[in-house]
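Submission sheet (multi-component)
Chains listed below:
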Amino acid sequence: MIPELGHLALILALLMALVQAIFPLAGSWRGKEQWLALAKPAAQAQTLFILLAYACLTYAFITHDFSVKYVAGTSHSSLPLLYRISGVWGAHEGSLLLWVTLLAVWTLAVSGFNRGMPPLMLARVLGVMGCVSVGFLLFLLVTSNPFERLVPASLNGRSLNPLLQDPGLAFHPPMLYMGYVGFAVAFAFAIAAMLEGKLDAVWIRWVRPWTNVAWVFLTLGIALGSWWAYYELGWGGWWFWDPVENASLMPWLMGTALVHSLAVTEKRGAFKAWTVLLAISAFSLSLLGTFLVRSGVLTSVHAFANDPERGVFILAFLAAVVGVSLTLYAVKAHQMEGGQGFQALSRESGLLMNNVILTVMAASVLLGTLYPLVLDALAVGKISVGPPYFNAIIVPLGLLLAVLMLLGPLLRWRQDNLRQVGKSLLAALLWWRHKRSLSGWGMWLAHLGVVVLMVGITMTSLYSSGKDVRMAVRQHYLLDGYDFHFVGIKESVGENYLAYRGTFDIHQGDQLVSQLLPEKRNYGGQSMPMTEAGIDGGLFRDLFVALGEPLDGGTWSLRIYHKPFIRWIWLGTLLMALGGLLAALDGRYWRKVGGAE
Amino acid sequence: MTPVRKKRLLLILALVAGVGIALALVLQAFNQNMMFYYAPKEIKAGKAPANHDFRVGGLVVKGSMQRDKQSLEVRFDVTDLTETVTVSYTGILPDLFREGQGIIARGKLLPDGVIEASEVLAKHDENYMPPEVASSLPQTPPKEAK
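Outcome: structure written.
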């Protein structure tokens, strides 16, 4: 009964989304105010129904309703409660439901925090978000209904992929999706601005904090994924240039460019059309990411389904979104000119460089990710592009970006000269004596985060050492002055798995530094072994042991690492996210519009 | 031309030059790091490059896996059910590596015809077959819909 209720709620949500999409947009075109007024209640009703559907699916998971096909395929009676809740988005159908649920939450937030937003703008924004929602709800209902029944019901489930049974990963998809979907808000605002034919200060005040928040979520989502890959995939890397990682990096790069270009649009009224174009690209790349990950054209941990029908649907949806918004852009962009000019040495040109570099980065990641797919689709050949390609491009551009990032904020708007820059540089050395707004602090914190991230990447890349070794119990291995001693290995029993658990004592000189307990787990059922690395994390170094497999004569293959500064990578991203959040909370965006400054 | 226009022109030229250089570097990096995929029958036919990394995929032949007694070196045969090549790899094999499974290896062709792999991939799902491998196996007739 409950699953049918969920299904019904989804259908009602689709109807509400249609109302939310059609009436406000038609009303704004025909100038009917009553139609505009429908936007808010329709959006709220849509959110309510989607939340209801989401709750129904969660209920089916918690109560082990294996008569629901999706639950039977993803859950198991022995699965702990946390993973039954996160299991909802453990595969294709549920993760799409999560997507529309988060879109609904964003829609609700936009319709709630809108004091002083012109009603016409609000109606258009909600209308565009309604269109996006219609697309995804149709996709869900037509190709991937999570509430489909299984007849006869299964006695037990096929269980959640053990890789996904991990707290870090439980939160990775929602964070990432909050980011992807958040760019839908920026996109909706961009379309609304084009329909309006102008982009003014009021618009900026609304769009900037929303974009920042979306960017913060996306940053955290990517960082969580990278952290998870580091300790859970078991092999100690933190970024693999896997197509699916790239799929999340591209919208992030464009989103970062958007955040910066919005700064110019707010302060100087320039870059308007470019800002709109960035908002369109960030969201289109988010959709492309979903397409790449969910359609099964990419082969990776993330590709759940290999269903061409789904891929075609998302591709058509993507084509519609990109086609319509770019057509609108071609017609309307010229109306958004304006803004003051600027000199070659000015903060505007610094931010312009930032945008150019980020766009080139995103374009080259796109090339490296899509080109192999295109060649394959055309049956020309099967190629792949490895990490060296991406490193060869991103590393030098990243360094250039870092230099700009440190100098750019010292430049003044419009024009500057070298002597003045020198003075600003000196003044910056006394940076804590400056009075700044919250968003100013946010910028510095985020930029500090980039520096920390880059220190982490550099130190880890240059000074890590690691080795695959063959060791027997009681043997030692010396790595970078750390003595890894294989003390023993025994079998242990976990909540829903069996494991071999190794014990390693690590000495530096005579001192015991750490004891690591890496595991090799077997979750039964689908009998997929899992490597649970033993990691001793620290601010300045991580020690890492992962069990490979048992070999002859009681020996094991092991992977041992010493990784200096690797935590700085995630610490840096945390600072970046925190900075973005501070900037979004700046009072000037939240004061009542039209009130006293 | 007014000074402002001149400056703007210079800026635009600098941007175009920058983007051009970036594009050239990108394409060069792309060309250097592109890796082709070959099925064992193509390698036997001599299509694989001699001193450039490439990828090979297929099923691991049952009973072909040999481990060195001292080191972590392992040798196994990979087949596309037409031809078979031997792959040598030193290091830890992925958790899902098993005989009879589809895998992909990245590496170089040695003069003796063995492929020295620097990476072996087996995917994270035991029901999963890498699409490259699937398409290089002989096609089985589709099951009748019933």
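Remark: The longest helix of chain B spans residues 3-32.
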